[in-house]
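input
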Amino acid sequence: MDNVRLLLWGALGLLLILAWEAWQRDYAPRGPVPAPTAQAPAAGGPVQGASRDADGGGAARPDVPEAGAAPPAPAPQGEAGLPSAGRVRVETDVVRAELDLRGGDLRRLDLLAYPVSVDRPDEPFRLMDDAGPMLYVAQSGLLGPEGRAPTHHAAFRAEADRYILAEGAEELVVPLVWEGPDGLRVEKRYIFRRGDHLVTVEQRVVNGGKAPWRGRAYFQLQRGAAADPSSSRFLYTYLGAAYYSPEERYEKIPFDELAERPLARTFRGGWIAMVQHYFVGAWVPPSELEARYYTRVLAGPRYVIGLVTPPREAPPGGETAFRARLWAGPKLQDRLADVAEGLDLTVDYGLLTFLAKPLFWLLKLIHGLVGNWGWAIVLLTLLIKLAFYKLSETSYRSMAKMKKLAPRLQALKERYGDDRQRLNQAMMELYRKEKINPLGGCLPILVQIPVFIALYWVLLESVELRQAPFMLWIRDLSTPDPFYVLPVLMGVSMFVQQKLNPAPLDPVQAKVMMALPVVFTVFFAFFPAGLVLYWLANNILSIAQQWVINRRLGAA
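output
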């Protein structure tokens, strides 16, 4: 058996599957959102699954969770937009944010260390925004007695409209204040820290009245259906909601499945997130809290995932506080693992995570030595090749012997013509006589495939490679080669590799094999340069190893 042919067919199948998934994501029609199962509320009555605004208006709000039991996922409903009541601008060394005084939402977030592209280095990537189809906001509020619990629709006030992290300061506190009836006061504080994308949000309730106050806090992420601007159209990356529980660990809920399988569970030690390529927004409550987790689908469509804390009480003259942490930034694995258990799983390597994580660790270690992610990829490919040298040698020896035997196999084909049974018998007899196992090289290649696939996901998912330069014209390893030089070189290397191996006896198979380098070149023209560089480096090393073995066995 031609082992390289087997590997090439498998790789081509993988490419076709990736292309199909990308087409499905971008162009396939979406199924309709199920119609509501409950009857519409009577005029003036509350909307199902909604709470009333706490700023005195009394209007039902479908994007506010209930204070009681977890609601079912409602049919699309809600407001067309998110009205503003004025903005508070915040700037640290790593983020530029805007908080809205309507509810104290985080409505806009720019990541200063992550430009939109290498061609626009002064324009930071906007992770969150409340404008148009790119709607993506972080919301929080309180649930309690009507009129005495400000939701994210309540009106807050601030002492200033701009807060900047002072030089030498390690944190920046932004307080927003809501004042209710009977001396009730709520202070929502955002605490930003230098060099960090982790924000602490505290909702402090001060009860200056004569009656006790009892309520819950909620923290949620709301997002529109627009595609992820940081993802490739040709490679599938996940965009959707996710949560973590100690029992099920990391669970993803794609937007088109939120209505069919809503989240309505209570557990401790979890978190909720909106995940996209390279970046993630996640609410992390204190690990000891047994929070209630939920999802919703609103008009637009808009998608909500959130959590509600257990109730707390502020006695007359006393106070209580609710806290959660918000990570809004790049998927930096080491930092995410420190923030919460399982949060680093949002860097999704799939089933091969157990292989991908050590590979990323090694890739990062090499980068620390050479200072260039492109050369780190090349050196990591070399180390992997050395690790599998003996296995590869077995495979290449088998192919070299098959190539040396090719003229005799062709003679057998000409002798027996279309008599497949006699031809196969003669070929097996020749294999026995020459002590060649045609399947001898399959196992070594199959053992290496999981490692290669794991490295593929490492190169695709790691934000560290985003906009990382290599050399010359390759200024961003996460985007395609602008001049298609690497894909062409990769195609040439595949052609050379085929010439070192035995050609198929079947002329149709031979023509297909000759076409594969062209097909792969076209596919790889749209792949990130880092992935093409890895494949090219692996091909060159394989060619060198195969050439040496062919020379030794006289099959060159």
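quick obs: Confidence is low (pLDDT under 50) at residues 1-9, 20-59, 69-80.
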